[in-house]
Amino acid sequence: MELSINSKVTNKQLDKMCMEKGYAMNSLGITLTYEFVERSVDFNWCDILLAIESRYILYEVAKKYASVELEWNDSSDVLELAILTDNELERPHLIHPYLDRLAEEVSEQDKAKAKHKILYLALKWTFENKKFFEDPLRVVEFIFADFNYPRIIAHFVRYMPMIESDLGSTELNVAKLLSKWESYLDEQEQLYKKD
Prior knowledge:
Blueprint: H1 11-21, H2 34-40, H3 45-53, H4 59-69, H5 76-82, H6 86-89, H7 92-104, H8 108-128, H9 136-146, H10 170-192
Helix pairs in contact: 3-7, 3-8, 4-5, 5-7, 8-9, 8-10
C-alpha cells in the first residue's frame, strides 16, 4: 500500500503502511515527484542517490534530472541516464553504476547535507499535504524515527519534552508544534532553496 492522499489518511492506515513497507528511511512509502523536488531544493546526484536508496523518489526522477542537466553537463553518465528507456528504469543494476559515479563527483560538503535535505523534503511534503492526514504530527513521528531521531526536529515531535510549559489545551499545544514545524521548514528553505 503506497501513501495515497486521495482521501484523509487515518492513523490506523499509517500504522498499517509502516508495517507493510519496512523501509529503513521511509516507513510510510512517501514518494516525491521530480516537480516537487525541483521546486524545493537545489538537488545534486548524491541527494538523488540517497533519495532513491531510501525510496523517497523513483528512478524516473534521476532520468528527468539527467535530461535537464544535459544542458550544462554532457558527461557520458548523465547522457546514459537521460536516455534510459522505461524498461531499463525497472532494472536498478543498470542505473546504479551511473548514479554511483555521478554521486562520487559531489563535494564532501554537499554529500554531508544529503540526509538533511531528504528529511526537509519529507517534512515539507507532509506539511503541504497535512490536510490529508487525520493527524499530521503522527506522520512527523514516523519521519523522526525513520531518520534516526534527528535533534534538529525534536522540538516539534509531540512526544519529545517541550522546553516551554504546557499551553493549557491540546489545540493550543498542537498549534504550537505546527508553528515550530513551519518555522523549521522556513529555516531549511533558506539553506537549500534554488538560486
